[in-house]
Amino acid sequence: xxxxxxxxxxxxxxxxxxxxxxxxxxxxxxxxxxxxxxxxxxxxxxxxxxxxxxxxxxxxxxxxxxxxxxxxxxxxxxxxxxxxxxxxxxxxxxxxxxxxxxxxxxxxxxxxxxxxxxxxxxxxxxxxxxxxxxxxxxxxxxxxxxxxxxxxxxxxxxxxxxxxxxxxxxxxxxxxxxxxxxxxxxxxxxxxxxxxxxxxxxxxxxxxxxxxxxxxxxxxxxxxxxxxxxxxxxxxxxxxxxxxxxxxxxxxxxxxxxxxxxxxxxxxxxxxxxxxxxxxxxxxxxxxxxxxxxxxxxxxxxxxxxxxxxxxxxxxxxxxxxxxxxxxxxxxxxxxxxxxxxxxxxxxxxxxxxxxxxxxxx
Length: 362
Ligand code: NAI
What we know:
Elements: E1 12-18, E2 23-31, E3 37-44, H1 49-65, E4 71-78, H2 86-100, E5 105-109, H3 115-125, H4 143-146, H5 148-160, E6 167-171, H6 175-186, E7 190-196, E8 199-202, H7 209-214, H8 220-223, E9 228-230, E10 242-245, H9 254-259, E11 264-266, H10 275-283, E12 288-289, H11 291-294, H12 297-309, H13 317-342, H14 346-361
Parallel strand pairs: 3-4, 3-5, 6-7, 6-10, 10-11, 11-12
Antiparallel strand pairs: 1-2, 2-4, 7-8, 8-9
The structure holds 1,4-dihydronicotinamide adenine dinucleotide.
């Protein structure tokens, strides 16, 4: 946490807790130089203030990287799903937070939160604030349903590492990983391995995406008949063209980076690759497309969702996909070419692009 107390932020950290539900929550507003803080709310049994602060900083770079006028923020709710009613915990979090900081933060979706949860947030807020990611029936832009983040991950990859005929390994078949899997295949790649928190599956001739995605998230891999079932984590070491971590942070460290057998890494998840791992991969000639460049499809859709709240017109999903594709492809190209001409890692190039925009606003 303290390593993040620097020239950029955080500007505000608010902790709330509720003894009735056992909920503990935190909001970190990192930097609002370019606009009000917006970022997803993560709900998980294990979550720290430091983790939420790191994610809020990623949001600062993500909004600036995609050149949209919001600031970096993130919220996290720690709760035990075995003993706590999730809806009650979420309502307690929203109520307590909106008492503390009325309308300074816009709640969006992150790991562990669904469109239904966004509807609960909106119901709890009523006129006191905004939630984005609500279902279409409630006037929202349903970006889970549209799979905008995963769509953008595959689009950004294709712009700098054309996917036709390539093989992709995906870690995490949740909101991001599923939509990415679908788009990777539409762009001509085959997904040869995938995992959820329950296990992994590998088929060198390509998994049947329709069958894989037809079963629900956390049972997807064990329920998939066919392919070879593997121990968790081993999928990342399968020889492939692209590795796409789309689940957790901190999954590729320097030692794993030295053993990856791929030509390209795209960060679908936030912060899956350590700084040391990025350097090891750069030295091996393997570019890593940074999270805040590759997974910014969700924030582009969130910007549409914010606009939609003020307008009687619903945005056309085709326009959202087109904007994501154009913006993310251009960004990926800018970052990869800046990194090769400056001899830096793509992360360093992306960070300097985002930093210069935030510094100008500050
Ligand atoms: P999710 O909760 O929908 O899915 C996470 C998936 O990861 C689940 O399928 C789960 O089974 C899997 N998983 C968990 N532990 C695993 C392990 N050890 N090995 C393999 N798979 C494992 O979460 P979501 O929304 O897809 O988010 C994933 C990542 O993408 C997170 O880092 C999140 O911050 C990031 N992200 C999500 C965005 C969104 O629009 N949902 C936007 C930008 C980033």
